[in-house]
């Protein structure tokens, strides 16, 4: 308990300090780069650079605040764990890696944080040591290694500029071929870390980690690292990179919304909603609205962290059951947790005057006003409708109807520490969106639209809620047994067969062919004619000579007798 409290208080204090510093930097419109000399050998110095500006300090304050609440929450959630201190230290290492990535203007020090996130995330995903966790951890680690390779290649290309401090070259070298190549590599790294198509399958698989880890990962650390990196590199993002990112991110947003509408695992639904929001951030970033992407990143971090904490409290009370079909009527037993849950879901949908509304509605109006084409406009509003649909479906299954779990259960809002951890975030979920709009947007966006276009967001939201309710009703009716519904739910629920393409398609066939080659060649013909044949031949000959060695007297007497008999026969 003492370790949790110490880290919680330290992170909370650092969060407040970072937040007020960010306000100071924002008001002064200033930026500071600190260079700390680590090693100096023969006039060659190794320098650690730290970038302090309003963006890095504000994001760091959110990361530290959410992690402090999650650590406090974890003390009760992971109370039965014998290795509690190890878990807390892993979470702290995770946060430190993210802070290293946030404050670094240098690609080498960013790589330390980037790889630290990948390594510690693997350790946390396999924390519950079983086959499912190991598989999920391996998928997570290997997918993120692709981004790490792209990162290493971009570090090699930065040699052309004579320094790894990318911050100095973003504006000056933005039109050079080398910076275009580095930008493509950074795009690949950001897409793997933020799970864009075709690297999306690891994100729901990573739900094998404990729920406090999921809360941290999906709000402000691992999956947002790719978005933050691309926000930093947005000044040198060429048109070709923007088009690729816009197309991929919009498809990811749409695909995740469809997948969540057919999913029954509580944590996976929330994970797919994270994927949908990441697609939203990436696509608005590709359209040039990097401030909007950062704004939504911060508001999303708050309500998504609390959403996972509420889900964790429900799972904890339901004897580790995550299937929403076994839930229902939980609001009668856990009113406070369910209230938080509904507020977070409404913030995700963009209900007016909650934190998610200010960023999401602004993004949608920005897209409506821009000249991005009908495809992007259509897919944005369809994805928004799907967000409301799967949210209402989730709320319908979890909160309404009859209780579907075991008769003997300990449901209730009795977990005081978990509730205190959630209470720490709920006020920010409600009020922080409006506060950030005044802080981040120094010049307010003036968006002039017709009445129909202005009301389109509200129309799509209401339509999405109705579709979500219908989907929930349909799954409980006889029509859900029809072949067409089952086939469509398998296709959409499996993320457009993405795991078969980017996970099993990459891993399974190579491993299967490797097993065949091993059994037929290494353990087959080459073994038969190679080492095994040599071994058998030597064994036969050694046994043969061993017979001679063991029976040499008998053989000598036998040969003597035979020679005498042969001589006698020859004489006569």
UniProtKB/TrEMBL annotation:
It comes from the Eukaryota. Its main location: mitochondrion. Residues 104-383 form the NADH:quinone oxidoreductase/Mrp antiporter transmembrane domain. It catalyses: a ubiquinone + NADH + 5 H(+)(in) = a ubiquinol + NAD(+) + 4 H(+)(out). GO terms for molecular function: NADH dehydrogenase (ubiquinone) activity; NADH dehydrogenase activity. Its EC number is 7.1.1.2. Residues 40-87 form the NADH-Ubiquinone oxidoreductase (complex I) chain 5 N-terminal domain. The keyword Cytoplasm does not apply. Signal peptide: none annotated. One of its GO terms (cellular component) is mitochondrial inner membrane. Keywords: Electron transport, Membrane, Mitochondrion, Mitochondrion inner membrane, NAD, Respiratory chain, Translocase, Transmembrane, Transmembrane helix, Transport, Ubiquinone. The chain crosses the membrane at residues 46-72, 84-102, 149-169, 181-199, 211-231, 243-262, 269-295, 301-318, 330-354, 374-399, 419-438, 444-468, 489-510, 553-571. It is a multi-pass membrane protein. It is found in: Mitochondrion inner membrane. One of its GO terms (biological process) is electron transport coupled proton transport. It holds the Pfam family Proton_antipo_N. Belongs to the complex I subunit 5 family. This is NADH-ubiquinone oxidoreductase chain 5.
